[in-house]
Amino acid sequence: MGQGQSREIKNKIGSVKNTQKITNAMKLVSASKLSKATKELNSFKPYVMGIGEILGKVVNKSTFHPMIDVNKSKNACVVVYAGEKALCGAFNSNVIKEAIKTGTRLEGEGWTVKYFAIGKKAKEGLVSASKEIIETHLLKTPLPTKEFTSEIASELVELFSSQEYGQVHIAYTEFKSAGARQTKSYQLLPFVPSDEEVPEVEAGSDENVFRTRYLFEPSKDAIIEELFSIYFDSEVHRCFLDSLASEYGARMVAMDNAAKNAKEMIEALTLKLNRARQAAITQEIAEIVGGAASLGS
What we know:
The chain is an alpha/beta fold. It has six helices and five strands. A five-stranded mixed beta sheet has the order 3-2-1-4-5, with helices on both faces. The two termini are 28 Å apart.
């Protein structure tokens, strides 16, 4: 019986060691992908912030533009960024919960909400929650290309500009570090301009003399049109990079924890194996001594 128990424990140790090799390999792969994603994100984010700042200088609540105007449609679209794979802790479930939370809030305000899934797990999670999906995009490469995200941005702008949808929201995961991330959602369309208005000043005042003046060429409307195009493409791309970096970081941490748990399990099983061996040896010695005693008598 002792030998049978020892064999069973040995098989368990071998199985756990194989799992540990897989988790260590997945951890290294995720770390490599995370490095590339964060490098891309850190180089792209200042560009997006710069575009946003420029828009803030030339667009305000008095600006007339189709991307700012509120249409009569009561349909709302919630874009959900999730991963293509699992094994990344609660990353996928958290962002899906955030999207559904946003959708529930909009429904409470009288909107009919449909979802735009980006990632295989986004689609699976929304289907599981019985939510209606109008479009799904799957990422085939480790990082999204500008052409890929530009296509998504164009579809979202078309949903709004055609007045089929009155609002477009985005739910994604903002990357902070490998071990820290935050799910967020915000309104992409209609674009919400700054509340700040450029104050009027008297013609002869000192403020009027030293005030920065902007010369728009070819025209303010043409520049705003181009800025909006760049902004929406950039925002969709940034959210994708944020989500991917968060996914790779979550998977790296999850695989690291799994590898540590496997190590602890191997140590516990090894201790159990040694005890089983000792018990078997003790039993054999007891049988030998008992047999010798019976022969002597």
